[in-house]
Give the backbone structure.
Amino acid sequence: MNMLNIDGSQVESDEDNGNHVNVGLFARPDAIPGLQFGGSFYHDKITNHDFTPAPRLGQSIVNAHIVYVGHGIEFLNEGFLIRHVQEHSQTVFNMPAFYSQFSKRFQKVSPFFRCQYANTNPRSIFEDVLLRHGPSFGARATTSTTTSRSKRNWITRSAKTS
């Protein structure tokens, strides 16, 4: 099957053939209004076209989250583990990531603070991400019809080594 890439070039076959698994569960306990927690699992086979021959990868993503929204407070936490296993090889990449965000509403404005972390392998398909961590600050303003947001990052990135 020939497909067009975003840049207009032809692709011989479509790796996204719909043969993936995605399962997610969450709970909102009545005993604590505003609390939600849950998790999900995703698995698919993908191709890394950055290399020739292009290796096939088994990609699994495990995710967990806990959120509390109540009394003008918003507290979000989410963690991931992205796992790539190269077919016909013992090569495995386990790449963790998480963020925590706290926000307090003051009338129509909600300033927030976020701390984030991502650590990917330089030989993975996420070679442009590598290690990123640090805080973000921002504010979200909400009216009855629109929401606007401004954010400032102080992210530390590790440099890609040659």
